[in-house]
Amino acid sequence: MTEPMKNLITHPALRNIQYSPLKEGEEQYIVLWDPTGLSAEKLIIPLNFFYLFQFLDGEHSLEQVGVEYLKKYGEFLMPDKLDKLITDLDQKLFLEGDRYEAAKIVAIKAYRDAPTRKPQFAGKSYEDDPEKLREQIAGFFTSKEGPSATPSGNKGKLIKGLVAPNYEVKDAGPIYAWAYKELREAESPDVYIVIGIGHAGLDEPVAVTDKDFETPLGVVPVNRPIMDYLKAKGGDELFVEEIRHQKEHSIEFQLPFLQETVGTQKPISIIPVLSSFPPITFIDPELKDFANQIEQFVSLLKEAIAASGQTVCIIASANLAHIGLRYADNTAPTDYSFHRCMQTDLEMLKHVENMDAQSFAQFIITEQDKRHILGFSAIYLLLKLIQAEKGEILRYDREIVDQFNSTVTYASAAFF
Which among 408, 195, 369 is positioned nearest to 282, based on CA atoms? Predict the structure, then answer.
């Protein structure tokens, strides 16, 4: 007999909320936010309250949560404090329940009714004024961290794929430029399959949207022949989570570079795909159905491309390692641990250069994903889809993201 669902009012369940540590003087706090963007709110809580979040799973009552606090800290958590915490979480849409479901319905309708997917990060992650944005992008190509002016050895060849960061454009722009210089000098294809990461997580392995994307530089249309094929053969399943595109940055960050490097010379169109699945998907028997869905999507997209008769470039928008307290490690990175991370990244990227998706996945599985390779799914799909003769890692770098030295690494690569 199936056990009845618990009451989410008496047994609160936390959504997939992201967090990062914050230190003010000697006091430590946790900052919470919604990675889906459904809620724009943030909440700062004491570190000891964060311990309780593992019990906000829809299975523990508020009374049981209070007991867990007593066990951990040896003191009672006053009911009014716990009630206030739960109320704050609910009001900010951080909990499962009626408020969250109602807000999601409104957001989905607004997304579907909008004529385009509007830029969400212009004016924050990159310039929102068209002229300033063009100048900003040009500056990435000429900066000392950017690519040299020497022509690429692949100049004039048909480009098949790119890996570019999905970190803040204003910070990682020169590393993006290494990838897009190759595109600018190559024979450009007809369509760009832009595969991003669903940072908020997905219930399905991929989420496709048929929305045209708008940037300060204009509208980037979806490629209708390929999209129509996906709709006809793949059905609604591919689109059930398309609302995730609304606040996700990883596809948006690629588009101004596409518009400036290719779009000024010829029309461009895209197929926007978000992905989210771990390497263990392909060896865990319990995830066999999930793995089959991924393989079916790869086959379907290959069929759609072939049926369209168009040439394509696969772009994986993906960062690499995420190390430090912000990413649930127990200690902050040191120069030594970063150096080791860099060596491991470069070893891992050899499988990407070799276009060996299986070895790429196995490498991360073997190290038990200790470095949190959050760009795995996008790069994996690129490697499964691409039909190229060679790959080349162009540039590698990192960014320190908080006061605790938490670090994100990323790279640019090209395939011909």
Answer: 369
